[in-house]
């Protein structure tokens, strides 16, 4: 009974917080288990031969369900790992962050997945107000794909949003990388919100693990609350996200 009442309260809250999404798309949020929710949406893909609104063939999953209302706060931080990469190609030893020809980069499928993630976020009214990104190529590919997706629903997003390339988000202990996560932690702690939306930081597995003790999938974002001593409220990621061979033992369930 309490859970049902909570769901009703959240639904009423979303009517207000999700006003932007109602203008831009037809986002849909539903509870799929006691602890988990999913976001989907339909988009007008009509042209001369197709005059129907079609669903985006992806779903954005978040957990726990009780975190739902926090996703719409502008004073939280989305601490995100770059999107899916090609693990048949590894970083060369001491490769520079901007040397894209000698490091692991995103796959074409990974870029399309992150573009859809941007569509799903924007379609459900979750749009960053500021983005901080690592110098590494796979992180910039993630940023570009997210912007492409969000911009389909919010064409002014790129021009309106403050985007900062910051070496504090660079791969931990690599060449020209962050020596520790102190600056990243301070960046999160000092975030107090912005009228345009929450802070998003696009960093790396190692940095996020060192900072939070959570191991995240490629393209996954942890929701961090600076007002609660950087407490991790939960995660959000594509339903199709899966463990990568570089950081997960696929024999061990996560």
- For the record, the CATH architecture of the largest domain stands as 3-Layer(aba) Sandwich
Q: Tell me the total number of β-strands.
A: 10
Instruction: Return residue spans where pLDDT drops below 50 for at least 5 consecutive residues.
Output: 1-24
Tell me the β content.
15-25%
In sequence order, what are the helices and strands, one letter per element?
HHEEEEEHEHHEHEHEE
Average pLDDT confidence is: 86
How would you sum up the major sheet? 10 strands, mixed
Silhouette: globular
Distance between the termini: 30 Å
Identify the CATH class of the largest domain: Alpha Beta
Number of domains: 2
**Can you count the helices?**
7
What is the CA-atom radius of gyration, in angstroms?
A: 18 Å
Considering DSSP H and I runs of 4 or more, what fraction of the residues is helical?
25-40%
User: What is the CATH T-level topology of the largest domain?
Assistant: Rossmann fold
Let me know the CATH homologous superfamily of the largest domain. Phosphoglycerate mutase-like
Judged by helices, strands and strand pairing, the structural class is alpha/beta
């Amino acid at each position: 009974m309490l859970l049902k009442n909570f769901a009703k309260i959240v639904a009423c809250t979303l009517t207000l917080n999700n006003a932007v999404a109602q203008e831009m798309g037809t986002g849909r949020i539903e509870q799929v288990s006691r602890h988990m929710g999913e976001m989907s949406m339909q988009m007008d893909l009509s042209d001369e031969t197709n005059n129907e609104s079609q669903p985006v063939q992806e779903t954005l999953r978040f957990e726990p369900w009780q975190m739902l209302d926090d996703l719409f706060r502008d004073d939280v931080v989305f601490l995100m790992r770059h999107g899916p990469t090609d693990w048949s190609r590894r970083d060369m030893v001491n490769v520079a962050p901007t040397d894209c020809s000698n490091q692991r980069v995103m796959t074409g499928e990974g870029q399309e997945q992150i573009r859809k993630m941007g569509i799903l976020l924007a379609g459900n009214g979750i749009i960053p107000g500021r983005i901080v990104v690592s110098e590494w190529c796979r992180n910039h590919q993630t940023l570009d794909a997210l912007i492409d997706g969000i911009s389909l629903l919010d064409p002014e997003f790129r021009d309106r949003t403050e985007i900062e390339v910051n070496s504090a988000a660079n791969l931990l202990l690599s060449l020209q990388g962050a020596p520790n996560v102190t600056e990243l932690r301070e960046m999160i702690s000092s975030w107090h919100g912005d009228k345009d939306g929450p802070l998003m930081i696009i960093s790396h597995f190692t940095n996020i693990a060192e900072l939070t003790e959570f191991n995240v999938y490629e393209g996954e974002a942890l929701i961090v609350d600076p007002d609660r001593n950087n407490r991790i409220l939960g995660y959000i990621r594509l339903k199709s996200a899966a463990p990568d061979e570089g950081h997960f033992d696929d024999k061990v369930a996560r």
